[in-house]
C-alpha cells in the first residue's frame, strides 16, 4: 500500500512512519509548511510549525530511507485556522485551533492532495484506534493510552476520510513510542511534546488577539446588569475565567467571580458565582458523523475539551442540531467549543457548541 506519512518533526509521527515502513508499505514522508516565515509562528523545537521541526522530520525520513517532501499549506493554514481563530474570539466564541487544523489542513487538504497523487492512505502520529468492519466501513475509537488519547481532536472526521486514515500508534503508550524511537536511533526520541498554540510563539493568547482586534473597552457586569468593572476587549476573556477580571466591586459574600458569558454585540462580559457556571444542557450546530448519526435520544458520553472528562449524557439529533443533556452539571462550557460524542469508546460524531443552558 502507498502510504503518505505526515511528519510533524515530533517523536509520535516519526515512530508512526517507522511502523509503516516496518510493515512493508511504500512510504513517503511529508512535512507541512504552515507559515511563509516559520519563525513568525514558533522558534525552538516545541511545536509543529518551526524550522527545527522541518529539519527533524527530514532527518527521520533520511534515517528511514524514505522519500521526503515539504508541502506548502501556509495560505490555507492562515485562512482556515489563524483567521478563523481571531474571528471566533471577535464573535465571543472560544475555538479550538488544533481541531480546526486537523479538520481543514492535516486531513481534508492533505488527504485530497495525497489521493490525487495516488496514495492509498495517510498515516499520522495521533493516538486513536480504527476498526475495520465487515461491511468495509471504519469506526474511530479511543486509543490504548488514555492519557494520550486524541480521539477528541479527530471527532470531526467523516467516514470517507477515516477510510483513508492510518493511526499506527493506536495500541501503545507514550513511553513505548519513545523507546522505539531510541532503538531506531531517531534523534527526536527525547523531543518534548508541544502543548501551546503553534501560531502564538510566546503563549500570550490575549496579546495575540489584542494585536489583531485592538482595544475595545466595555463593561464587566453581573447577571442583573450592574457594572462591576471595565475591560479592554471582550476577546480577552473566556467562559469560566477567574483571574485577571480586576473588578472594582467585590462580591457580597467575598466569593470569587467567574466569566459566565460573553456578549459581543454590547461588548459586555458577564460574571457571576461558580454555581452560575453550571450547565445541564447544550445545543450544538454543524454536526458531523464518523459513521452514522444515532437516531432518537440515546445514552452516551460527551466531551467538550481535548483533555476534558467525558460526561454521561442523553444525546439527541433535532433537525440539523445536536442536543446534549448532562446527567450532572458541567462547568466552563463555552460557545465555539466542540462537543464530541461517544458510545463507549467509539466516537459517534462532533458538533460546534452554540448555546449552553444552566440548571434553572
Automatic annotation (TrEMBL):
Pfam annotation, one family: tRNA_Me_trans_C
Subcellular location: Cytoplasm
Keywords: ATP-binding, Cytoplasm, Disulfide bond, Nucleotide-binding, RNA-binding, Transferase, tRNA processing, tRNA-binding
Disulfides per UniProt: 101-198
GO biological process: tRNA wobble position uridine thiolation
Active-site residues annotated for this sequence: 101 (nucleophile), 198 (cysteine persulfide intermediate)
SUPFAM superfamilies: Adenine nucleotide alpha hydrolases-like (SSF52402)
Site (Interaction with tRNA): 126, 337
Molecular-function annotations in GO: ATP binding; tRNA binding; tRNA-uridine 2-sulfurtransferase activity
Region (Interaction with tRNA): 148-150
GO CC aspect terms: cytoplasm
Main location: cytoplasm
Binding positions for ATP per the UniProt entry: 6-13, 32, 125
E.C. designation(s): 2.8.1.13
CDD domains assigned: MnmA_TRMU-like
Catalyzed reaction equations: S-sulfanyl-L-cysteinyl-[protein] + uridine(34) in tRNA + AH2 + ATP = 2-thiouridine(34) in tRNA + L-cysteinyl-[protein] + A + AMP + diphosphate + H(+)
Protein origin, superkingdom: Bacteria
Enzyme class: transferase
Record domain tRNA-specific 2-thiouridylase MnmA-like central: where: 207-273
Stretches assigned to the tRNA-specific 2-thiouridylase MnmA-like C-terminal domain: 280-353
Protein role: Catalyzes the 2-thiolation of uridine at the wobble position (U34) of tRNA, leading to the formation of s(2)U34.
NCBIfam families linked to this entry: PRK00143.1, trmU
Record-stated family: Belongs to the MnmA/TRMU family.
Record-given protein name: tRNA-specific 2-thiouridylase MnmA
Taxonomic source organism: Tessaracoccus oleiagri
Lineage: Bacteria, Bacillati, Actinomycetota, Actinomycetes, Propionibacteriales
Originating gene: mnmA
Amino acid at each position: 500500500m502507498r502510504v503518505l506519512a505526515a511528519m510533524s518533526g515530533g517523536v509520535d509521527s516519526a515512530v508512526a512512519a517507522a511502523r509503516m515502513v516496518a510493515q512493508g508499505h511504500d512510504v513517503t514522508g511529508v512535512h507541512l509548511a504552515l507559515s511563509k516565515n516559520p519563525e513568525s509562528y514558533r522558534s525552538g523545537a516545541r511545536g509543529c510549525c518551526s524550522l527545527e521541526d522541518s529539519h527533524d522530520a527530514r532527518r527521520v525520513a533520511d534515517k528511514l530511507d524514505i522519500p521526503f517532501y515539504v508541502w506548502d499549506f501556509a495560505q490555507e493554514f492562515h485562512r482556515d485556522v489563524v483567521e478563523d481563530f481571531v474571528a471566533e474570539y471577535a464573535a465571543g466564541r472560544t475555538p479550538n485551533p488544533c481541531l480546526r487544523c486537523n479538520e481543514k489542513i492535516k486531513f481534508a487538504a492533505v488527504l485530497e492532495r495525497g489521493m490525487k497523487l495516488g496514495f492509498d492512505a495517510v498515516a499520522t502520529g495521533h493516538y486513536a484506534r480504527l476498526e475495520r468492519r465487515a461491511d468495509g466501513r471504519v469506526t474511530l475509537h479511543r486509543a490504548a493510552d488514555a492519557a494520550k488519547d486524541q480521539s477528541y481532536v479527530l471527532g470531526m472526521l467523516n467516514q470517507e476520510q477515516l477510510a483513508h486514515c492510518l493511526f499506527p500508534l493506536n495500541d501503545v503508550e507514550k513511553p513505548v513510542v519513545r523507546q522505539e524511537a531510541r532503538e531506531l536511533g531517531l534523534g527526536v526520541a527525547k523531543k518534548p511534546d508541544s502543548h501551546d498554540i503553534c501560531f502564538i510563539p510566546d503563549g500570550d493568547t490575549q496579546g495575540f488577539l489584542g494585536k489583531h482586534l485592538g482595544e475595545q473597552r466595555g463593561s464587566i457586569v453581573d447577571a442583573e446588569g450592574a457594572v462591576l468593572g471595565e475591560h479592554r476587549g471582550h476577546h480577552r476573556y473566556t467562559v469560566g475565567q477567574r483571574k485577571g477580571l480586576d473588578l472594582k466591586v467585590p462580591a457580597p459574600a467575598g466569593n470569587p467571580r467567574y466569566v459566565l458569558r460573553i456578549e459581543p454585540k454590547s461588548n459586555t462580559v458577564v460574571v457571576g458565582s461558580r454555581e452560575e457556571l453550571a450547565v445541564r444542557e447544550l445545543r450544538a450546530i454543524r454536526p458531523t458523523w464518523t459513521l452514522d448519526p444515532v437516531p432518537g435520544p440515546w445514552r452516551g458520553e460527551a466531551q467538550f475539551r481535548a483533555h476534558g472528562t467525558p460526561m454521561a449524557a442523553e444525546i439527541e439529533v433535532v433537525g440539523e442540531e445536536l442536543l446534549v443533556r448532562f446527567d450532572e452539571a458541567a462547568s466552563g462550557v463555552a460557545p465555539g467549543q466542540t462537543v464530541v460524542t461517544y458510545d463507549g469508546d467509539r466516537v459517534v460524531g462532533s458538533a460546534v457548541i452554540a448555546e449552553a443552558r444552566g440548571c434553572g
